[in-house]
Amino acid sequence: MKSYSSIKSYWPAHKLFLSFLVLFLFCFSVSLGAKKLPIKPRYFTLGVCQKAENSQLAKNLGFDYIECSVGDLLAPTQSENVFRSKLDLIRESGFEVYSCNSFIPGSLRCVGADAVPDKIIEFATIALERAKEAGIKIIVFGSGASRKIPEGFDKQTARKQFVDLLKRLGPIAMINGVTIAIEPLNSKETNFINTVIEGCEIAKEVNHKNIKVLADFYHMNVEGESAESIVTAGKLLVHCHIAETAKRAAPGVSKECFLPFFKALRKIKYQGRISIECGWTDFEKQAPEAIQILHSQQDSLNNTTVL
């Protein structure tokens, strides 16, 4: 029979063992229960390019935000009252306007002998100040007509004109809390900056934190650019557009697969957003299907990669 002193010395160790055993069994049971719980899927924040007047409809259809055009919402060439009336439409809906596209009109040339950088800065200053008031974070700089290099004009000179313009725009964007995203457009729409890689080269040359790059999956496909360019872009990429390649239709029309692009975005831990920019034949009917198909394509990635 053990003495009282030996039992006393044995008990603390025995008690410690029992404590660890209870803790282990508890954690094991919790892990078993957790496996049975459904994992809530996470998707890239999805918006839609639409007019300000359709903000309530876009919200009702299930989008996360709306992307308007600069001319429609910010109306830099029009009065403050016109701008505020458009902004009121969005505020009444309680919907977020996160971004604006179609930055510079074709009448204001960025490059070439007819370039008007000072007028562009004047126009852009109004647009960016109004963007700040509207809470907009991204201004998409596509503007293919404005940046098209005139036939016979020196390409390097045009490139320098564009870079110099962006260097002037960067500080204005920064003051207003906005990032300008260079949008590469396919070569059928413009002859300057046709790929994400080219957009990144321009952004690197400008070297300003408020000048970044956009990837439009439609333009990439038309231009034959692979999703690997997204990986190359990395942190320079701040915004995306999406549409099917055929007829620039809404996602779901031809059931086009966007998985290579989603995988690339996951790989770089993309924190930006994606706007559907397409030709709708019936917005109210097609929108829910577009959202569903883009979510379903991401579902196959949710079990292996977390956004």
Order of helices and strands: HEHEHHEHEHHEHEHHEHEH
Specify the oligomeric state: single chain
**In percent, how helical is the residue content?**
40-55%
Rg: 26 Å
Uncertain stretches: 4-8, 32-39
Task: Name the structural class.
Answer: alpha/beta
Distance between the termini: 63 Å
CATH homologous superfamily identity of the largest domain: Divalent-metal-dependent TIM barrel enzymes
Salient structural properties:
about 300 residues, TIM Barrel, eight-stranded parallel β-barrel, 12 helices, about 50% helix, globular
How is the secondary structure organized here?
Elements: H1 4-36, E1 46-49, H2 55-61, E2 65-69, H3 70-74, H4 80-93, E3 97-101, H5 117-134, E4 138-141, H6 144-147, H7 155-175, E5 179-182, H8 196-206, E6 211-216, H9 217-223, H10 228-233, E7 237-242, H11 259-267, E8 273-276, H12 283-302
Parallel strand pairs: 1-2, 1-8, 2-3, 3-4, 4-5, 5-6, 6-7, 7-8
Helix pairs in contact: 5-7, 7-8
Please provide a written account of the structure.
With 307 residues, this protein is α/β, with parallel strands linked by helices. The chain folds into two domains: 1-37; 44-302, TIM Barrel. The chain contains twelve helices and eight strands. The protein has helices spanning 4-36, 55-61, 70-74, 80-93, 117-134, 144-147, 155-175, 196-206, 217-223, 228-233, 259-267, 283-302, and strands spanning 46-49, 65-69, 97-101, 138-141, 179-182, 211-216, 237-242, 273-276. Strands 1-2-3-4-5-6-7-8 form an eight-stranded parallel barrel, surrounded by five helices. Helix 5 runs parallel beside helix 7 (155-175) and helix 7 (155-175) crosses helix 8. The N and C termini lie far apart (63 Å).
